[in-house]
C-alpha cells in the first residue's frame, strides 16, 4: 500500500467548505475509529469542528484514508493543536499516518507560523509523535479511560 500513498489526495479545508458528503464521510471515519474500534462512547461532535481547519487524505474511492483537525489557539489549549488524528483501518501501517502528521504540521505552520503546537496524544503513540519533534510535557492521564499524554512541538520546529 506504500506506493498508493502517492495516490492520496490531500484536502485542507475550513468546516464551511465541506460538502455534505465529505462531512458525512469524515464523521463516519471518526465514529468508526474513536467510538466503535476503541469501544469508547463519547461525544465526538463537540462543537469545535466549525472553528477548525480539517486535513483529509482521500483515497481513489473518495473514502477517508487519514484525517485530523487543526484547532485554533484558545479552543482546546492555549496553543493551536492537532486533534482527532486517525488513519482508517484499511490504511494503517501504510505510512498514511506519518504523511498525515507531516502534512498536518505543515498546514498548521501555514496557518500559525510562529506558534508552538500542543497535542493530547494516546500514550502508546508517544514515540511516534516524538519522531516529529513533539516533547512530552505531562504525566499520563486518562481521557475516556484511555491513557494520554500532553506533548508540545516548540515554535519554529519544522
Structure description:
- The chain has helices spanning 20-37, 96-111, 126-130, and strands at residues 9-14, 53-58, 64-71, 81-87, 117-122, 135-136, 141-143, 146-153.
- The chain is an alpha+beta fold.
- The strands form two sheets. A four-stranded antiparallel beta sheet has the order 1-2-3-4, with helices on both faces.
- Strand 2 (53-58) and strand 3 (64-71) form a beta hairpin.
- 28% of the residues are buried.
Radius of gyration: 15 Å
Biggest β-sheet description? 4 strands, antiparallel
Q: Helical segment tally?
A: 3
Question: Roughly how many Å apart are the termini?
Answer: 27 Å
Shape: globular
> Topology as H/E string?
EHEEEHEHEEE
Q: Helix content range of the residues, please?
A: 10-25%
Q: What is the count of β-strands?
A: 8
- Contiguous low-pLDDT stretches (5 residues minimum) are none
How are the strands of the largest sheet arranged?
A: 1-2-3-4
**Mean pLDDT figure:** 94
Essential attributes:
158 residues; alpha+beta; four-stranded antiparallel beta sheet; globular
